[in-house]
Write a structure and sequence with these properties.
Number of domains: 1
Number of helices: 7
Strand content: under 5%
Largest sheet: none
Distance between the termini: 68 Å
Order of helices and strands: HHHHHHH
Helix content: over 70%
């Protein structure tokens, strides 16, 4: 008996073209229709601006001994509200674009963002412990910019641009602190925090909503 080497039959050209078309449509759909809600970005921006106002007009008016606790309470509330709103709005939007909130891609994006966010949390605790909370803002922007840039590898190109904007603003805030311009320590950092976490998120949310809906 003569054994012939098995050679799979070539796939018909038309079937191969159809497979490529389906794959391309799935990739385009994944990019075009994000589970991110534009309204979530706007709400996160507004909550961040509110946090900056509370920091400026309430936390800084407290006696120095009470500021650290008030600072931590204020920004923990801001983060909790932003994350909670994002979760609820994403859960509402996901079925509308044919996706689920608990997906493999979502888990990969979370893992990609975790190192940057964790570093930001550690730096916050460090600055609070040493009584230098007014110097933490640039590091928030840099840590968040790193996290968002990592997520941008799996998402729309606007996400990468958002991460780059945070990184640039963080570098600017560090440069201002290094120059020691004649302003109260942390004033410029707090203003840039409102601009970045507030303004950038609102702008991004509106951009996403105009393309894919709220």
């Amino acid at each position: 008996m003569i054994l012939k080497e098995y050679e799979p039959e070539p796939m018909p050209v038309r079937q191969a073209e159809e497979n490529l078309r389906v794959i391309r449509e799935l990739m385009e759909r994944s990019t075009r229709y994000s589970t991110f809600s534009g309204l979530s970005g706007v709400c996160a921006g507004l909550v961040s601006i509110l946090g900056c106002l509370v920091q400026r007009f309430w936390v800084l008016s407290l006696p120095p001994a009470a500021r650290n606790g008030a600072f931590l309470a204020t920004w923990s509330t801001v983060v909790a509200l932003a994350v909670g709103i994002d979760y609820l709005l994403t859960k509402r939007r996901a079925p509308l674009v044919g996706k689920t909130i608990n997906s493999r891609l979502g888990r990969q994006m979370f893992l990609a963002s975790f190192p940057g966010l964790f570093a930001g949390a550690l730096l916050t605790l460090f600055f609070l412990q040493h009584g230098m909370m007014e110097y933490v803002y640039p590091f928030w922007m840099l840590s968040y910019g790193i996290a968002v840039s990592a997520v941008g590898l799996f998402s729309q190109r606007e996400v990468g641009r958002l991460g780059a904007a945070f990184l640039a603003t963080g570098v600017l805030a560090l440069a201002v602190d290094a120059l020691q311009i004649g302003l109260q320590a942390g004033t410029v950092g707090l203003i840039l925090t409102a601009l970045s976490f507030g303004g950038f998120h609102i702008l991004y949310g509106v951009t996403v909503a105009r393309r894919g809906g709220w």
